[in-house]
Amino acid sequence: MEDLSRTADQQQHHDDGLSCDVLRHPAMAVFVHHCYEFRRGLRNLVLHTAPAEFREPMRKHLERLGAAYVFQDINRHRINVFFGLEPHVSVIRSFGTRTLSDYSPEQDFLLGTMLGYDGAQQCRRYLQRKQAAQSSQHQACACGGRHCACAAHARDGSD
Predict the structure, then answer these.
(1) Global pTM value
(2) Each residue of 77-111: pLDDT tens digit?
(3) Where is 54: in which H helix or E strand?
(4) Does residue 151 belong to any structural domain of this protein?
């Protein structure tokens, strides 16, 4: 049986600078495809989730590609990388370091729209999340939503 292990000096590299060993991982194959779609103008913004160990190879590749990017840790083992056109990535940076699940309904809507998700589906999702957020505000202040005069609801007139 052939020995497939290599030292760092023996490791083969593709034209894009990513090693064959790195490219064997499914998450990296998808990453390379996302980069191809970005280069071809099919995507202005990409959200890619990968094992944290690939942060550095992805960073190097994105720099060679000339793409704007921002990494966000999901946990110790997984990361998200947003990459694409600078205006799109700047919007993501403006959201701060919160996790995707902590995005406001408006941030979630904007992200989905920039990623190219179906517009009608994004509108339905936004309205559902907005209604859920308002409902949880009512529960948090124990107003029950009836003729609410609490400070949290007085500013938006919801009840």
Answers:
(1) 0.73
(2) 999 999 999 999 999 999 998 899 999 999 999 99
(3) none
(4) yes
Single-letter code of the amino acid located at 119? G
Does an H or E element contain 50, and which?
strand 45-51
> CA-CA distances (angstroms) from residue 31 to 49, 55, 110, 134, 148?
9, 11, 22, 37, 48
Tokens of 141: 């202040």
Same domain for 73 and 37, yes or no, is yes
Residue with tokens 């941030």: 107
* Residue range(s) defining the domain that contains residue 79: 13-104
Strands 45-51 and 78-84: antiparallel
**Cα separation, 82 vs 93, whole angstroms:** 9
Tokens at residue 87, please?
Answer: 């205006």
Q: Is 29 left (phi over 0), alpha (psi -120 to 50) or beta?
A: alpha
